[in-house]
Amino acid sequence: MARVRRRLISERLECRRLLASVTMGPLAPVQSDSYSAAIQVNEAVNLRAAEIRFQFDPAELQIQQEDIRPGEIWNDKASVIANVDEASGTVTAFVFSLQPIDSSDGNLLDIQVQSTSNSSCLTSPNIDLQAVRLNEGAIELETAPVAGPDPTDQFVAPVPASENPQPRKRDEGFIGPLRAEHVDMVMYRFEHNTLRPPIL
Q1: Please, what is the end-to-end C-alpha distance for the chain in angstroms?
Q2: Among 41, 54, 37, 69, which Cα is nearest to 156's?
Q3: Do strands 49-56 and 34-42 pair parallel, antiparallel, or not at all (unpaired)?
């Protein structure tokens, strides 16, 4: 029977190919009707250009061309060209620098967002990051964003506890989650003007 020999081969870390990652950071409340957001990148070595597309709900949010600026990763050495379709809520932006930048982690884009008068206080607005290309595709992404919910999308950041009233405890009148039978009972009493509950 032949003897199997195994030989360990060391691998230099410099030879490993790192993949960049991008995410749409959470919308952070700035004022009662405005937010700030950022598209973040990690492990983007020798970055010099980024093409980005994202979408927002124009019924909930407003974004204009001047609200989109290069992020801090560019160190004030980049320009941005943005096209905002306010009717559909689609934004395409191209950020570029003449020379590769030194940083590999940081914000690609900083975005100022305004809420509309029709926005609902019961739902959290969000921005859908749909496509990103770095250095015309030369820098590969670990997870490429797609249209619709995916791991690159994040939502509204929670308001700090000091600015957000504490929820009431159950013994202070918190009604808890509504169930179908509770709704049926309330509707019956309104319709028949009686305290007698229906037979479930």
Answers
A1: 77
A2: 37
A3: unpaired
Please name the residues in contact with 190: beta carbons below 8 A apart, sequence gap of 6 or more.
none
Which tokens go with 124?
Answer: 């959290």
Q: Tell me the torsion sign for CA atoms 163, 167, 168, 169.
A: negative
Q: How confident is the model at residue 123 (pLDDT cuts 50, 70, 90)?
A: low
Same domain, 70 and 137: yes
**Spatial CB neighbours of 37, under 8 Å, sequence gap ≥ 6:** 24, 25, 26, 27, 28, 110, 111, 113, 127
Give the chain's mean pLDDT. 77
Number of other CB atoms surrounding residue 32 within 10 Å: 6
- For 149-158, write each residue's pLDDT tens digit: 898 986 544 4
Tally of structural domains, the chain = 2
Find tokens 């008068």 and name the residue: 117
User: Do residue 102 and residue 194 come from a single domain?
Assistant: no
pTM over 0.70: no
The whole-angstrom separation of Cα 132 and Cα 98 is 19
Q: What is the pLDDT of residue 140?
A: 95
